[in-house]
Amino acid sequence: MNEMTDSPVTAGRRLLALDAHRGLIMMLMAIDHASYFIARVHSRELWSTPLPVYPDALWFWTRWVTHPCAPAFFFLMGMGMTFFADARHKAGWKENRITRFFVIRGLLLILLQLVVENPAWMAGDLSAHPGALVIRGGPMPGGGTGGVIYLGVLFSLGGSLLFWAFMGRMSSWPIAVTSVAAILGTQFAIPGPDRTHLVYSYLTRALLIPGHSAILEVLYPVVPWLGVTGLGLLFARLLQRHARRAARVALWAGFGLLGLFVVIRVAGGFGNLSVVPPGWMGFLNVVKYPPSLAFLTVTLGLNLLLMASWGWIEPHLHSPYNPLVLFGRTALFFYLLHLWVYGLLGLFFRTGSGLATMYAFWLLGLAILYPLCHWYDHFKRRKPADSVWRFF
User: Fold this and answer.
1) Are the beta carbons of 54 and 137 closer than 8 angstroms?
2) How far apart are CA 7 and CA 18, in angstroms?
């Protein structure tokens, strides 16, 4: 990105780096889900509860390297909304048509959470031997009985998309204020450890406080994450107007956020949403559900530093066989399919596996996904711009 001119960003070379960035986080995310389905090990960093304890550094980093993925999903979705709206305006689409496209896609993401993603998690649970799944971290806040409807990242992405479908037309300052208010407001609104047992309303769970309430279990409430999407909207606007300035902003903001992360962890109070454990693992072990300010500063900081390097990365991305670009162009298709691929591979490991075996099957899963995503990429490119198949 440092080599970009200040010419407007169009659907060409610069968006290739965005696709590769998205593809990278898809591959990293798959490590965490391979751990769930194959090693039968998963971690939960929940508000006001004890954070996960790891047997060694390899297991810690296996979880930690996946932390930048969720913030990148939301940030890059915000960028994609800005680029999409600009491209469709130039193609003659009216504002209402663009809004309708975003609304339909947001509703589709929520539907896919319920009818495609949730059954994959359920199948993974049923394929494991009783007691084989190891959950690291504190208990799920809340309680209640009955079947569980899970609301995860697709639900929150869909909710954020619906919000910004209407509010994204605002000028930059109101978007910035709304985004920062959503992120900081979450830090004030999350209760302390004496309230983890409360069974909050379904609406409170879905919008703000992760946990379990009777039939509903939420890990990704909408409000904390829509702020990250709004920041992506703003960054894309800057990138469209001043590419070089955007590169400098990404670089210095990235370093600044990492510095703020250190301050927040050393202070140990506001922005952590849990007690900071001792040791270097404890220092890096941050609350993800909902995203604490510590979590967002370190993960967005790393993502912004990667964005600042887009100018160096882009010349190496032009091969049509590059898996980063391919997985990034078919991100939703990859996401939905990879859960079932690793779920099926997990049938060979009903009692779990070691770390080395898990990584080997993570790579095998990527190898299986590659030709399928290649086929889908060609398939959707033949569809019209407003086809539902373009949503994937």
Assistant:
1) no
2) 17
Closest CA to 289 of 113, 49, 119, 110: 49
Which amino acid, one-letter code, is at 88?
R
Question: Which amino acid, 204?
Answer: T
Nearest to 76 by CA among 24, 112, 113: 24
Q: Is 245 helix (H, G, I), strand (E, B) or coil?
A: helix
Query: Helix 13-34 crosses helix 293-308 at what angle (to 10 degrees)?
Result: 140
Residue 6 in any domain: the answer is: no
**CB distance 141 to 49 below 8 Å:** yes
- Within a domain: residue 285? yes
Q: What would the pLDDT profile of 319-338 be if each residue is shown by its tens digit?
A: 878 999 999 999 999 999 99
H or E element in which residue 213 lies: strand 211-213
Closest CA to 128 of 367, 352, 296: 352
In sequence order, the β-bridge partners of residue 150 are: 217
What secondary structure letter does DSSP report for 208? T
**Residue 284 and residue 54: Cα distance in Å, rounded?**
12
Could you give the CA distance from residue 83 to residue 98 in angstroms, rounded to a whole number? 12
Prior bond of 290 cis (ω within 30°)? yes
Amino acid, single-letter form, for residue 288: K
Q: Which domain holds residue 352?
A: 13-391
**Helices and strands of the chain, counted as H and E runs:** 16, 6
Residue 353 lies in a domain: yes
Structure tokens at 173: 């300052």
203-256 confidence digits (pLDDT tens):
999 999 999 999 999 999 999 999 999 999 999 999 999 888 999 999 999 999
Number of folded domains that form the chain: 1
Residue type, position 287, single letter = V
How many C-beta atoms lie closer than 10 Å to residue 251's C-beta?
A: 17
Q: How many residues would you count in the chain? A: 392
* 7 within a domain of the structure (yes/no): no
DSSP 249-261: HHHHHHHHHHHHH
The DSSP secondary-structure symbol of 52 reads P
Strands of the chain, DSSP E: 41-43, 134-136, 142-143, 149-151, 211-213, 216-218
pTM of the model: 0.94
